[in-house]
């Protein structure tokens, strides 16, 4: 126990599709980073493997771990793989099919052979029952709850195999008593059965969205519960005493005990951690506004951080279905290193949307892929060292890359292999740049005012050309762009958020009424915080916010509500007008109203970023011939290992920086400088390149 | 294939294409973001396009199909009235009149010329469905209009801005002719902003490529889309395919169904659609000017061939139409046109029905193709006025291997429904049911999608109620032995117990306790019902999809 006197070790573990990343912060020793293969089926095995390996490597006792933060795919995968619970859905009489009808819009505009747009798989007709009751639009009880009908519905669903019950009654966000009574009846008759109530999961108007998110909650609850219990047991038997914390969709951590009760908040846990990591990197670099671009094999995830805060959207999607929980606004576009280049029927070069994925993968993987991918083009152009891809873990065959580009692109277009490969890059970069521009424009931001933070294996390879396309003049390359999600876990605060519907006009509203609702939400958040242990006491922050819209408007904006302002409601209105002007390009002094009130409690979260040694094998500084788009002749680029770069060092493009998890291409016109905290900051110098 | 030195290199071409589409998307995003009207934000009823100086579409952002190519006649007409050599930097042109290149009066088109080194290099154009442009009823879509003068203010091709100077005369005239000027000009400014952003970025692109480079790339991109479209048409067997479907009536002459007849001729790599046999133009507002008929044809072709083909004027070159003058698809002035969405939807369905005979695996059975329009207007308990509108879909048609989808928007439009909770908080109306309409999908090896059942009760005051239905008379047909979907049905149950069936279109008054029950149509089935797989039959029974 004497070891407990030594400052604790902190661990972040992020589970991805292929690898489970572990970052381990040891006081006095810096950070260690490790990748172990993910274990589909039971991802907790990969987590335990990774933890055991990193502890062994660092020779640290499990009992020294004081914090354990986890980014998990378990909620997302339960949906993608349709492996959730068999649920029963209970609704108001007359409204059995709200879940299946949805909003009647189709997502593919130019399709005539349609697929359902609603998550019917959660509860097909046979698993939906109604109960006699009705609450009105002012929260008044129009028809009292008929308990006999509840008994009949619940027993029927259980007899049909329901493992979990979702309850979504009309106007329950104004009065949840009927839903609560349904839960009591379920518990009396079927103890142990999970129940999700819409008045707790998402107390806001619009019955389809509320029903869907409640059904998702019920669907994943038993799966998440099992997984977290299993992982907690595993950690406990491995001697880890620290509580398990899990990353939520908004970018804050929650104790596993709380997360199990609110599983719906675990969607996109990993990508959220990545954005928190980018935000932390920005904080270290003194950058408040940044765009994180995570380029992997099949997709590119784009997120904006403005004023050091990740943009949150009030409603996300999972597998194309709406999930109305606040999430970090991560936008995926279908372009990545595995995107396939092809020639269309009119002889034009196209890149994507098809991807070679990881199996067979790019041609250079030598796994039977023959299509030319962006990664193959990177090999041909000399950007990637075939012998040092993923730190040498995967030997690439440059001959296969060359042949694929030649056969499928260069020959048909009648151009050289290098010109074809450069073309593939130019096309991919053009489409990604348009994607990034659109994401920022939709939020009312001009990307030119932002820095770019490249993430993932391929982000740093494309960063300079994306920045050039977008007019961005600064790029901040994290020390370990490939494992920033795990790093973000260590930088994230604990966060609990509660909201309630509040349908009052701003100009007719009594501040005391607002305070009463927020006090209630604060108490709920505090109760959740009380379960967080020691970390709950670190640097506690409380923020209030209101969702506000113009009277008659169908969409809203989240605006901070500053209760200690001399006139909080007036300030809220002014801030709403300013936000409306930014996001929608106009604002008039028309009456506005509340939609929801929200309280967010945070604690801890150092905003610290990993400074790990990468363990890049030492290699002499060298040079390599590379081809750049728009230039006929190749150029010589300096090639250096990231670990060999000293603080303060300058690097003038063209240059290539290699490290185990990524390769950084510094194009002509860009100069890199290594900061004291090991970030590589690239700045645009020349006006025009190529 | 050999490199052709007189052409843009294929890589610059593809990069240029992504930029052009990005510019169109950025314009569209600006429109959607900045517009006031809910119909723009939630119904995506707006569009942005780039045009060549010659008036062909260079790129178009994804919008609802009724907007596909609808800016072409607007740009064409602007070019006639204001020839390119007279266009100047800072000009903006405006029009909305359907008989001068518009679609219906709420859709206002703006066109802005883009210059580089003094030469006209492109045009940016936007079209937005405005909330109100005056006329005999709020919203400017009067179902009982019999001439266009009742539908709102008509704007011929005019300069809204002349070399940077706004046309104040026109602005003041418009201000007096629309019901909510703030909203109207807010939406118009969003259009100006979108055109300006597009023009700025196009100017940058012209700066990179040069005016001639941009022109060469533009022409080649059009040719590429034309080639791809012709190839796709080439996969459809040659022949002439006929189809007939009906709209219930025009809202004025209630006993006269409207016939839409098409003969689609596929000859090699070209398509011709002949509308001979379609009804004469009607007295009510269901007439559809050629741009709408064209949009329906382009949508159908795009959806049935390859939606991945970049959308530009090249896609439209292989398509020709014969639109008999004075008919429902090419009316003469001053026929009213505001309800033409229903007509466009039915035309799209007809062309799909015709091509189904050629490519039965790719084309579905008839969709309900109805967008039931309901409007309730009355007074709240506190005396304030309200108008709530509902747009309600039916089922989609089944196709080879797929059941139809229940209650889903198809073809020309793509609107959201109204949540019950939103409706009840806004108006003294109670909804008693929102359920799938069991048994309404056409039977087949693959079943048609179901319609919806919704029941409303008026709680307070005197209500003006508008009901604009379709498929009350002619059902959505099945295909390959599949059966037709159920007809739509609507009933008013008065507080005194009396029942009144609504025959498709009606404007009436409702009082407290009166109820309206609407049931939308089902989609057609596909394949012989007896061949339906046993597990699908069982699932339908368990899930309550069949009666």
Structure overview:
The complex is a heterodimer of chains A (690) and B (547). Chain A has 16 helices and 35 strands. With 690 residues, chain A is of the alpha+beta class. Chain A has a six-stranded mixed beta sheet with strand order 3-2-1-4-11-12, with helices on both faces. In chain A, strands 13, 14, 15, 20 and 23 form a five-stranded mixed beta sheet that branches. In chain A, strands 6-5-9-10 form a four-stranded parallel beta sheet, with helices on both faces. In chain A, helix 4 packs across helix 5. Chain A is globular, with a radius of gyration of 26 Å. Chain B is of the alpha+beta class and 547 residues long. Chain B folds into two domains: 220 residues, no CATH class; 184 residues, no CATH class. Chain B has a seven-stranded antiparallel beta sheet with strand order 2-1-5-4-3-6-7, with helices on both faces. The N terminus of chain B is likely disordered.
The overall average pLDDT of chain B, rounded, is: 93
> Shape of chain A, please?
globular
CATH topology heading of the domain at 2-78 and 225-266 in chain A: Nucleotidyltransferase, domain 5
Beta-strand proportion of chain B: 15-25%
Low-confidence stretches of chain A: 1-5
What does the main sheet of chain B amount to? Answer: 7 strands, antiparallel
Q: From the alpha-carbon coordinates, what is the Rg of chain B to the nearest angstrom? A: 24 Å
If interface size is counted as residues with C-beta under 8 Å from the partner's C-beta, which chains form the largest one?
Answer: A-B, 69 and 86 residues
Distance between the termini of chain A: 62 Å
Sheet with most strands of chain A: 6 strands, mixed
Into which percentage range does the β-strand content of chain A fall? 25-35%
Q: Globular, elongated, flat, extended or rod-shaped: what is the shape of chain B?
A: globular
What's the number of extended β-strand segments of chain A?
35
Strand order of the largest sheet of chain A: 3-2-1-4-11-12
What's the tally of helices of chain B? 10
Series of H and E elements of chain B = HHEEHEEEEEHHEEEHHEHEEHEEEEEEEH
CATH architecture of the domain at 2-78 and 225-266 in chain A: 2-Layer Sandwich
């Amino acid at each position: 126990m004497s070891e407990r006197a030594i400052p604790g070790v902190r661990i972040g573990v992020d589970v991805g599709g292929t690898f489970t990343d572990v970052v381990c912060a040891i006081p006095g020793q810096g950070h260690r980073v490790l990748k172990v293969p993910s274990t589909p089926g039971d991802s907790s095995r990969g987590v335990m493997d990774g933890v055991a390996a990193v502890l062994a490597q660092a020779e640290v006792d499990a009992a020294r771990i004081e914090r354990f933060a986890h980014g998990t795919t378990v909620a997302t995968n339960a949906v993608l793989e349709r492996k959730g619970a068999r649920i029963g859905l209970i609704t108001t009489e007359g409204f059995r099919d709200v879940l299946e009808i949805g909003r009647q819009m189709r997502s593919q505009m130019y399709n005539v052979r349609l697929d359902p747009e609603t998550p019917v798989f959660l509860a097909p007709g046979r698993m939906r029952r109604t109960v006699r009751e009705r609450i009105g639009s002012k929260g008044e009880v129009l028809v009292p709850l008929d308990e006999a009908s509840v008994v009949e519905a619940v027993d029927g669903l259980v007899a049909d195999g329901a493992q979990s019950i979702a309850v979504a009654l009309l106007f329950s966000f104004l009065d949840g008593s009927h839903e609560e009574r349904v839960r009591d009846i379920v518990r009396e008759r079927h103890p142990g059965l999970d129940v999700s109530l819409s008045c707790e999961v998402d107390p806001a108007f619009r019955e389809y969205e509320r029903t869907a998110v409640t059904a998702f909650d019920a669907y994943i609850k038993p799966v998440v519960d099992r997984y977290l219990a299993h992982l907690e047991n595993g950690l406990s038997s491995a001697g880890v005493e620290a509580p398990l914390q899990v990353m939520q969709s908004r970018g804050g951590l929650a104790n596993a005990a709380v997360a199990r009760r609110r599983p719906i908040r675990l969607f996109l846990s990993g990508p959220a951690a990545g954005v928190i990591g980018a935000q932390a990197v920005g904080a270290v670099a003194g950058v408040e506004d940044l765009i994180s671009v995570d380029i992997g094999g099949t997709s590119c995830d784009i997120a904006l951080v403005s004023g050091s805060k990740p943009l949150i959207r009030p409603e996300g999607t999972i597998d194309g279905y709406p999930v109305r929980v606040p999430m970090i606004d991560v936008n995926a576009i279908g372009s990545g290193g595995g995107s396939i280049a092809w020639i269309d029927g009119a002889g034009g070069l196209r890149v994507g949307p098809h991807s070679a994925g990881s199996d067979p993968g790019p041609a250079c993987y030598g796994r039977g892929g023959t299509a030319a991918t962006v990664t193959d083009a990177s090999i041909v152009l000399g950007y990637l060292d075939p012998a040092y891809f993923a730190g040498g873990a995967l030997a690439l065959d440059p001959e296969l890359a060359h042949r694929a580009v030649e056969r499928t692109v260069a020959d048909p277009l009648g151009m050289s292999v290098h010109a074809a490969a450069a073309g593939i890059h130019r096309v991919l970069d053009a489409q990604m740049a348009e994607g990034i521009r659109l994401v920022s424009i939709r939020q009312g931001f001009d990307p030119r005012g932002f820095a770019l933070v490249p993430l993932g294996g391929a982000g740093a390879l494309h960063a300079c050309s994306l920045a050039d396309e977008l007019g961005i003049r600064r790029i901040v390359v994290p020390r370990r762009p490939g494992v920033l999600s795990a790093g973000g876990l260590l930088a994230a605060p604990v966060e609990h958020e509660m909201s309630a519907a509040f349908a009052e006009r701003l100009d007719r509203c009594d501040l005391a009424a607002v305070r009463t609702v927020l006090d209630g939400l604060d108490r709920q958040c505090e109760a959740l915080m009380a379960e967080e242990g020691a970390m709950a006491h670190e640097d506690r922050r409380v923020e209030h916010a209101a969702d506000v819209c113009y009277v008659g408007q169908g969409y809203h904006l989240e605006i901070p509500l500053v209760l200690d302002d001399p006139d909080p409601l007036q300030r809220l209105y002014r801030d709403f007008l300013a936000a409306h002007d930014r996001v929608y390009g106009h604002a008039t002094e028309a009456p506005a109203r509340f939609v929801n009130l929200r309280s967010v409690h945070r604690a801890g979260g150092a905003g610290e970023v990993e400074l790990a040694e990468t363990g890049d094998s030492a290699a002499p500084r060298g040079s390599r011939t590379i081809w750049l788009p728009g230039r006929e002749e190749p150029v010589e680029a300096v090639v250096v290992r990231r670990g060999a770069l000293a603080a303060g060092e300058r690097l003038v493009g063209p240059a290539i920086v290699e490290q185990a998890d990524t390769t950084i291409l510094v194009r002509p016109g860009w100069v890199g400088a290594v900061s004291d905290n090991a970030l590589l900051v690239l700045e645009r110098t020349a006006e025009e390149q190529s | 294939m050999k490199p052709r030195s007189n052409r843009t290199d294929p890589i610059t071409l593809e990069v240029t294409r992504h930029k052009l589409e990005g510019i169109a998307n950025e314009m569209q995003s600006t429109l959607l973001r900045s517009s006031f009207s809910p119909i723009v934000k939630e119904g995506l009823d707006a569009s942005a396009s780039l045009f060549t100086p010659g008036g062909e579409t260079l790129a178009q952002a994804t919008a609802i199909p009724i907007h596909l190519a609808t800016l072409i006649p607007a740009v064409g007409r602007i070019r006639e009235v204001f020839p390119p050599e007279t266009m100047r930097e800072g000009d903006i042109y405006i029009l909305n009149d359907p008989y001068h290149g518009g679609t219906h009066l709420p859709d206002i088109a703006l066109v802005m010329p883009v210059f580089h080194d003094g030469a006209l290099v492109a045009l940016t154009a936007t079209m937005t469905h405005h909330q109100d442009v005056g006329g005999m009823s709020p919203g400017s879509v009067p179902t009982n209009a019999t001439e266009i003068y009742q539908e709102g203010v008509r704007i011929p091709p005019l300069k809204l801005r002349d070399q940077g100077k706004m046309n104040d005369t026109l602005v003041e005239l418009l201000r007096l002719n629309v019901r909510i000027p703030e909203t109207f000009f807010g939406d118009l400014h969003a259009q100006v902003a979108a055109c300006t952003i597009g023009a700025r970025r196009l100017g940058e692109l012209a700066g990179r490529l040069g005016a001639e480079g941009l022109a060469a790339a533009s022409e080649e991109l059009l040719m590429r889309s034309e080639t791809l479209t012709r190839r796709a048409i080439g996969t459809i067997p040659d022949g002439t395919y006929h189809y007939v479907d009906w709209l219930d009536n025009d809202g004025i002459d209630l006993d006269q169904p409207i016939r839409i007849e098409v003969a689609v001729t596929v000859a090699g790599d070209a398509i011709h659609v002949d509308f001979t046999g379609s009804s004469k133009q009607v007295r009510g507002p269901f007439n559809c000017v050629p741009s709408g008929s064209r949009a329906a044809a382009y949508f159908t072709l795009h959806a049935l061939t390859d939606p991945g083909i970049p959308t530009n004027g090249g896609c439209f070159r292989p398509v020709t139409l014969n639109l008999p003058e004075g008919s429902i698809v090419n009316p003469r002035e001053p026929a009213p046109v505001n309800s033409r969405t229903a007509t466009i939807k039915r035309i799209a369905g007809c062309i799909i029905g015709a091509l189904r005979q050629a490519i039965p695996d790719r084309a579905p059975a008839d969709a309900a193709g109805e967008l039931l329009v309901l409007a309730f207007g009355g007074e709240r308990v506190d005396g304030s006025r309200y108008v709530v509108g509902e747009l309600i879909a039916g089922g989609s048609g089944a196709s080879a291997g797929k059941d139809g989808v229940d209650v889903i928007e198809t073809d020309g439009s793509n609107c959201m429904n109204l949540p019950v909770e939103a409706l009840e908080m806004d108006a003294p109306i109670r909804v008693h049911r929102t359920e799938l309409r069991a048994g309404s999908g056409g039977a087949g090896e693959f079943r048609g999608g179901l319609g919806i059942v919704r029941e409303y009760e008026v709680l307070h005051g005197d209500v003006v109620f508008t009901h604009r239905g379709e498929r009350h008379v002619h059902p959505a047909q099945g295909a390959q032995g599949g059966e037709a979907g159920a007809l739509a049905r609507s009933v008013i149950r008065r507080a005194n117990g009396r029942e009144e069936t609504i025959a498709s279109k009606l404007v009436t008054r409702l009082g407290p306790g009166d109820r309206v029950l609407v049931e939308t149509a089902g989609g057609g089935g596909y394949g012989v019902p007896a061949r339906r797989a046993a597990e699908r039959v069982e699932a339908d029974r368990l899930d309550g999809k069949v009666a």
